[in-house]
């Protein structure tokens, strides 16, 4: 009943939209009750259409009234063609084109009914291009003409650019214009439309003249047979006015071919539960077509399937719905992908900005680091220059002392035996000098270690500069390495501080040695005064200058071990020569 209700609603919708409901609603309702064989009461009809808040002319609308009082009472005991003709009469005058058409009003009515059958189940009603192609193909085949696929493709492209499909009146104009039936006369087109109408609307699966054998008189009479999904009706002629009988089909029926006999050819037999019918076709081809059509109909009844054209329409609709669902799913996925892509773009933009900010910070830090390094280098350069000047002055003093030592060597050799006690003092001074040399060696070792540490620090600075020049992809790894190296640098700085402490301890030892040396020098001076008093000598060798020593960043200046050994060898050689 749901499918029947939908078919009725399409025709009623055309009539409903063509009428002024306030003035003609009662006419439509009365006519519907009449053609649908629905009992109606004129008094109740007037009551329904009164001007209040519940009637069909109220804000609630006509459709609830139609469903409740008419469609719910509809049975299948009405003439569908008469129903459609009534609805057509109400809407055709207002909507049918005034321009001349190549088809008659009757053919236009049949096209309108076919439109209601093939249209989509949504309002306003339209027929989609796929169904238009199906209908035009059916009409073209019924006319015996060739189908022009390329022509329809061009028409379909032009149609798709503007809308989803055609209305019933546009479909009538399309078929009536003769665009797809060029070269065919009006009668041929009319017969083709009628054939398609019989198949799609009246469920006529096959029809034609054949001979039937009577059950009582056993004579053969020509009849017009009409095959429908569950019945075969036969008439005196094809005008269907004088019906002679029906052959009711069900799943238990069967059809068999018979051999020629009694002068009749192309015989076949239809067996039903209560009767058997002998029929003679005009030729073998017609015989085979009828046998196959009847057998197909019986098979469909056995499995409970609808007629082929209705099943094909349902499959086309399901296919369109499936394609539409797939298209909607694809559009949804595309929207999701687009949204995801936009989110990714935003994330990438955020990451890019973060990287730019990080790069700016890194550049600023690098600039500060380079500036600090330049300042350290300048400071180291100044310290090195100062150290060179101090060393040069010390070398000049050493050269002067060496010259004075050469002058007094001869005097020392002459007085060596007289001043044995002075020799002991000199031995003490020598021991003090050895202690001083030990301290100086310790200072030299500390200076070498400090130089090595500074070289290692400079190497780490160079590695940091190289690390900064690497690609952004390795930046994180290099940052980790930089942290490790900074930790190592901190360890080295701690070691450097330890060396500073050791240097201070060496300085303290140096001060102690210096005090011992001054004590030895005082002893030597007392002996010098005694010798000068007795011997009349002008000067003796002195332990060294009383001037303050030059101090560098790493402690008192000192000779290297090689220079001291060379001077000691030279002094011993001169001493041996004088002896």
TrEMBL record:
Oligomeric and partner information: The SWAP complex consists of NPM1, NCL, PARP1 and SWAP70.
Name of this chain's protein: Switch-associated protein 70
Phosphoprotein as UniProt keyword: yes
Keywords carried by this UniProt record: Cell membrane, Cell projection, Coiled coil, Cytoplasm, DNA-binding, Membrane, Nucleus, Phosphoprotein
CC annotations in GO: cytoplasm; lamellipodium; nucleus; plasma membrane
Segments crossing the lipid bilayer: none
Positions in coiled-coil regions: 309-530
Compartments where found: Cell membrane; Cell projection, Lamellipodium; Cytoplasm; Nucleus
Ranges of residues in domain PH: 203-299
Principal cellular location given in the protein's record: membrane
UniProt xrefs under PROSITE patterns: PH_DOMAIN
Molecular function terms, GO-annotated: DNA binding
Functional note: Phosphatidylinositol 3,4,5-trisphosphate-dependent guanine nucleotide exchange factor (GEF) which, independently of RAS, transduces signals from tyrosine kinase receptors to RAC. It also mediates signaling of membrane ruffling. Regulates the actin cytoskeleton as an effector or adapter protein in response to agonist stimulated phosphatidylinositol (3,4)-bisphosphate production and cell protrusion.
């Amino acid at each position: 009943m749901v499918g029947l209700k939908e078919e009725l609603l399409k025709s009623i919708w055309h009539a409903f939209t063509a009428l002024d409901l306030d003035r003609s609603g009662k006419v439509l309702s009365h006519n519907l009750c009449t053609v649908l064989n629905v009992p109606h009461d004129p008094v109740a009809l007037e009551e329904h259409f009164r001007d209040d808040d519940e009637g069909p002319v109220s804000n609630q609308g006509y459709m609830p009234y139609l469903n409740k009082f008419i469609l719910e009472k509809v049975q299948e005991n009405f003439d569908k063609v008469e129903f459609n003709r009534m609805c057509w009469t109400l809407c055709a005058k207002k909507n049918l084109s005034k321009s001349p058409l190549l088809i008659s009003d009757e053919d236009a009515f049949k096209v309108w009914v076919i439109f209601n059958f093939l249209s989509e189940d949504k309002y306003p009603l339209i027929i989609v291009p796929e169904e238009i192609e199906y209908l035009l193909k059916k009409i073209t085949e019924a006319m015996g003409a060739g189908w022009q696929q390329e022509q329809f493709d061009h028409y379909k492209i032009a149609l798709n650019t503007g809308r989803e499909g055609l209305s019933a009146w546009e479909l009538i104009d399309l078929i009536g214009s003769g665009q797809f039936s060029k070269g065919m006369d009006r009668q041929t087109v009319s017969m083709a439309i009628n054939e398609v109408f019989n198949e799609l609307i009246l469920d006529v699966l096959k029809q034609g003249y054949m001979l039937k054998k009577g059950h009582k008189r056993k004579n053969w009479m020509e009849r017009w047979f009409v095959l429908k999904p569950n019945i075969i009706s036969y008439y005196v002629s094809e005008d269907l006015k004088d019906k002679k009988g029906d052959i009711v089909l069900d799943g238990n029926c069967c059809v068999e071919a018979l051999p020629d006999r009694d002068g009749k050819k192309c015989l076949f037999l239809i067996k039903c539960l209560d009767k058997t019918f002998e029929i003679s076709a005009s030729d073998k081809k017609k015989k085979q077509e009828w046998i196959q059509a009847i057998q197909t109909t019986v098979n469909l009844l056995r499995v409970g399937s609808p007629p082929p054209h209705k099943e094909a329409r349902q499959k086309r609709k399901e296919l369109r719905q499936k394609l539409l669902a797939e298209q909607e799913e694809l559009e949804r996925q595309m929207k999701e992908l687009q949204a995801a892509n936009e989110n990714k773009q935003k994330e990438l933009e955020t990451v890019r900005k973060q990287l730019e900010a990080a790069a700016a910070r890194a550049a600023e830090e690098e600039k500060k680091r380079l500036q600090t390094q330049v300042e350290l280098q300048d400071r180291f350069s100044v310290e090195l220059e100062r150290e060179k000047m101090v060393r040069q002055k010390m070398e000049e003093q050493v050269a002067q002392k060496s010259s004075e030592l050469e002058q007094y060597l001869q005097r020392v050799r002459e007085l060596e035996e007289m001043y044995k006690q002075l020799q002991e003092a000199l031995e003490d001074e020598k021991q003090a000098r050895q202690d001083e040399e030990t301290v100086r060696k310790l200072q030299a070792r500390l200076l070498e270690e400090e130089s090595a540490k500074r070289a290692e620090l400079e190497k780490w600075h160079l590695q940091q500069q190289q690390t900064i020049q690497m690609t952004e992809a390795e930046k994180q790894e290099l940052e980790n390495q930089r942290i490790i190296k900074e930790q190592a640098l901190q360890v080295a700085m701690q070691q450097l501080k330890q060396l500073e402490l050791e240097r201070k301890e060496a300085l303290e030892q140096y001060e102690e040695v210096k005090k011992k040396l001054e004590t030895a020098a005082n002893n030597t001076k007392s002996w010098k005064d005694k010798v000068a008093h007795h011997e009349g000598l002008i000067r003796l060798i002195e332990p060294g200058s009383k001037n303050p020593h030059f101090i560098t960043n790493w402690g008192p200046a000192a000779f290297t071990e090689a220079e001291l050994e060379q001077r000691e060898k030279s002094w011993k050689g001169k001493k041996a020569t004088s002896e």
